[in-house]
């Protein structure tokens, strides 16, 4: 197995482990009805477990959007074709 493949496998395992740890922490915070302490915009703040879960979902959506290829509008492609033909 190449070093690159081994590093990719290790990265996937670390990410999975972090996800599981986060879910366990949220479950514990929910059971104990306590807040999470996080850094937001450089400040230390307390947030509810519900807020943390919704923030996590927003981040996941943003990551998915970054991975998707960007679609060009019909207008921009038409303009590009006209510019290329001139």
Descriptive key words:
flat, single chain, mainly alpha, 86 residues, 3 helices
How would you summarize this macromolecular structure in one to three sentences?
With 86 residues, the chain is mainly alpha-helical. The chain has one domain.
Q: What would you say this structure looks like, in words?
A:
This protein has three helices and two strands; from the N terminus they run αββαα. Helices cover 71% and strands 12% of the residues. Helix 1 (3-32) packs antiparallel against helix 2 (49-67). The chain has one domain (3-64). The protein has helices at residues 3-32, 49-67, 74-85, and strands spanning 36-40, 43-47. It is flat. It starts with a helix and ends with a helix. The model has no long low-confidence stretch (mean pLDDT 81). Strands 1-2 form a two-stranded antiparallel ribbon. It has 86 residues and is mostly helical.
């Amino acid at each position: 197995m190449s070093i690159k493949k081994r590093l990719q496998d290790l990265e996937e395992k670390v990410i999975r482990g972090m996800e599981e740890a986060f879910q366990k922490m949220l479950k514990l915070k929910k059971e104990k009805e306590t807040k999470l302490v996080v850094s937001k915009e450089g400040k230390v703040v307390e947030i509810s477990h519900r807020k943390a879960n919704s923030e996590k979902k927003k981040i996941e959506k943003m990551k998915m959007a970054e991975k998707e290829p960007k679609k060009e509008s019909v207008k921009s492609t038409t303009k590009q074709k006209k510019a290329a033909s001139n």
